[in-house]
Amino acid sequence: MIEALERGIEEGERLGADFVEARFEDLTLRTLERTDDTWRDIQVKSRRGVAITCYVDGTAGFSFAASSDAATVVEAVGRAYKMARASASAAMLKLPFDRDEPVSPTPSYRPKIGVHPRERDLTYKTELVSRAVETAREHAKNVRNIRGLYGELYGDKVVVNSDGSKIQWDFLVTELRVRVTSRTGSGDMVAGMEGFGGTFGLDRYETEPYNPESMGKVAAERANEQLEARPCPAGKFRGLIENRLVGVLAHESFGHLSEADFVVTGGSPLTGKVGERLGTEHATIIDSGIVDIESYGGLWVPFDDQGTPASETVVLERGVLKHYLHNRGTAKKLGQRPTGNARAVNFTFPPIVRMTNTYFAPGDLTEEEAIELVGTGVYAIQTFGGQVQGDGSFLFKALRGYWIEDREIKYPIREVSLSGNVLDLLGKVEGATRDLRLYSGYFGGCGKGGQAPLPVGLGGPKLVIDGITFGGKS
Amino acid sequence: MMDSSHRITFDSVSDELLAVADSALSHGRSVAPDAEVEVFVYFSKSMEVEIDQGIVTAKDGAVAGAAARVALGKRIGFASASGVSDDRVKSCVDNALEVAKSVNVEDPRFEGFCDPAGQGRDGAFDDRILELGTDDLIRWAQEVIEEAKKVDERVKIVSSSGEAWWGGYAVANTRGVLGATRFGGNVITSNIQAIEGEERRGSFEFDAARDRLVEREGLGARAAERAVSLLGAKKLDYTGEMKTVWAPIPASTYIASSLSRSVLGKPVVEGISPLCDRLGDKIAPDFLTIVDDGQSPKSMGTYAIDAEGHPQRDNVVIKDGVLKGFLFNSYYARAFDVDPTGNAVRGGGLFGSAIPYEVGVEVGTKHMDVAPGRRPLEDIVSSIGGRAVLIHDFPLGIFHTDVATGEFSIVANSVFLIEDGEIKHSIQPVSVAGNFYKGLTDLVEAGSDVRSLPWNVTVGTLVFDGFSVVG
Description:
The structure holds two protein chains of two kinds. By secondary structure, chain A is α+β, with helices and mostly antiparallel strands. Chain A has ten helices and 24 strands.
């Protein structure tokens, strides 16, 4: 395969491109879904194709094809080159970058995978889902519906480029989820959920607390608790934000603003603010494709889709903006180092600036100390995800939580939204707990520029933040 | 093997895909004579250009691939593969058969794939879309940007994108379904940020069509004027219930994130939609009538057949405020003991997959058409006594809502205060929370200013009482 891509690089350079990247992916995806006693289609997908980016005068043209022979690659190169040339004449802002030495094809870190999903048959995986669903059924009350999901995505990713880099690596993400929907006495639907995913072998799903039995029980207990939960009061409160939700805050509300494609255009409110204090000393935000997955979880992204090796980028250090997330062109433009953040969701898209694992750094509080620090407010836990706009305003949903009063947890609350502007919020981070957790998975993911769902990792400790707007019953 | 998909044209796409689907089906019959087999073959060619603050990016390519389902009794395998060569599509059938053979779990509800029921009509298509090139899309985007920049010097961040696409899909199954449909369209967008000091306000406009080339004139100016008008926003300084007026774009997101999800076969059959046992009940005021129309010629959701080969049609969802029907593919229709409504989709909807053939068959709306009311937004505003909030553009977070609970909470960034019949001034972002289903009963008015949106909703302004507003 690498030979066909190299043939494409030669062709692009012969036509006159300043730089050419040729990618190939050959991925397998499997999805299993059981709802109550019903199995939907057991899905096996093969995703194979080439993607070509030609750069002319700091402007990119992109083409792709669901095939991998040399003739198809050369044809795609011709189209990409023509588009790059047409775009270069219209471009008012260009992002050229320098050629570099070829990168080492050996990743600087590789997580240990005990049992790769390709080593287990479908029956083993359907059993995983069934064990979770059946345990949830044993423990749940007033059940309306129980759903178990398993997904896996793995296979070869190849990048060859005009630097002479030839990289081939094995992407892997797996996830198991269980969700219990129950109905309250008054007819309202409530839900309890548990999920676990990332660059994990199947051995991780046989270990507490993420074996199917534990996950099924936890999802059921959360749904049971929601049967008695009250609506969250509406208004501005101090909040204790749980690890997963902190990850959404790091990713959605700050991470996207630090993506340098928004910065070079001036579209991000972080434009020109490197070195400025944006948050308290408790706010440190990191993006890294090579997190310690064995210890904390997350997603392994050792190279981006331009072939840049992953690195750890401290974006915000103790409240001060330090670095943006880059592709090669934005890094050159802003005089920073490439960070390995050029990613494409699949071969039908060009790499754009995306996050890898984005998380808040841990602090020194225990959970009890954090609850005391909140005094009165909301403990917001788990999430459906969130959204951010260019000015820094965000909204995300917590799946459940607790009302805290007089430094004690008082009662469970229903799902609730958290909103605000991240640039205000970072200045109100009052503390962080010690426990760092990272989350990733097969289902869902990040969306940007029509490219979704891109697997990412996110997380952090628990954070105490003042002045969050909670939407609920007024 | 050389991929032959580059030879496919708009004129030939139906025949080419039908031939591949039929050939793979024959292969399925020979390797699994006792199985039910279904083959789906998809091809879509597109070209996109974006200009963002002077950075130009261009992209083209053909998304081409296939999916097969094979059922051995109630054991069903699904496999998909990129590429539409005979070999790749046949390999889908082989892989799906292998899955069905290798697992020992069943879907007790499964009664077979879709029965043949004829074919509907393709949507309209303007052949000039086929002639568009990168240069045309670049020129369009440049026109939009120039127009936006002329509006006001506070219009600082301007981007525009254009896209043109065409394609088709074919479905064949061992029950006798053998059909194909074609689609296509073009879209132009304008995305603006107006900046004054530290205040940033954004707005978005677009035009999308399949039956004509998009209208560029006025697009950049409208988005720029809206963004500028939001500057100088004042704090609402209020927490409590308040009347909210949703202009057609946010109103369409309300419909798309609530009814468009809760009337679908899956949550209805599984019993998690709060509407699942309310057929025949009054769930909204008399003036609310909604039809899901799968055959409106100009709608992006119109196809001759749905994603499992059933003819598309129109289906009444709500008539005069009474819940009249749900939307089904063949699987959920059988489970609910009704006929399919032609609403099978593969990766459709507002957040549809870029690779539809990789997605299993689900149920989705085709085009939710909300009957127009008696007056437009301007007249509605003048009729409002006291205070209300007017919401434009896309509310943040509206799709992060669970269909089962219907509890929603959004942040509206493009907001104005209405006071005693007049739009007073822009206000800083407000949070609006409530329940989708209760919202339907608290609907005060639907406007006559209907707009057809490419995420398959046509609706005018909607006015609600009773939502909580924090701002």
